[in-house]
Amino acid sequence: MLDRMVDDKEKKAKAKTKANATMSAAAFDKAIKEGMNWTGDHFAEPAALASYGNYYFYGIERMGALLDVEKIKTHDWYNEGADELLRRQLNDGSWNDSCGAAPATALTILFLTKATSSIINKTPKVRAVVIGGFERGLQTPRQKPPSSSGSSRFQNLDTNTPAPRKEQT
Prior knowledge:
Blueprint: H1 2-17, H2 25-41, H3 46-50, H4 53-67, E1 71-72, E2 75-76, H5 77-88, H6 101-112, H7 115-119, E3 127-128, E4 138-139
Antiparallel strand pairs: 1-2, 3-4
C-alpha cells in the first residue's frame, strides 16, 4: 500500500510539472520583440522613475539578463541604469524611493551587481562593485584595483579579494 501511495505522489508531481504550451514559439518571440521595442521607446521616462525607479531598473536588469542583451533598442541598459542609480545614491550610501530605503537599496544593489546573471549561471561582462557607504564605481571583470592613491572603490573580481578600506578619521 505504501509503495502505491509513493508512486501515486510521484505521478501527481510529474503531472503538475508537465505544462501545455499556451502560445506558439513565434507568438512568444513576437511578444518579446514588441516588449523590447516598447521598453526601448519608453526607456527611463520620468514617469517610470518618479515613484519606483529602483524597482524599475531591477526589472530592466532581469529583462536584460534573461534575454542576454546589452542594449534595449538603442539604450545600453546597464550603463544608463547604473549612471542614473549612482546619481540618485544618497550621501550615506543608500537609495530611497516610494518603496522605502531598505527595499530601494536592495533593488539597486541587485541591479548594480547584475544579480540575475548569477542565478542563471552567466558571468556578466561588467558590473558595479558595491562595497559600502560612499564608495561607488563600475568595473569590468579582471580589472585590477586602482593604486592605493586614496580610492578604495574597487575590488579584484578574479580573486574576490576586497579592496583595502579607507581609514575613518
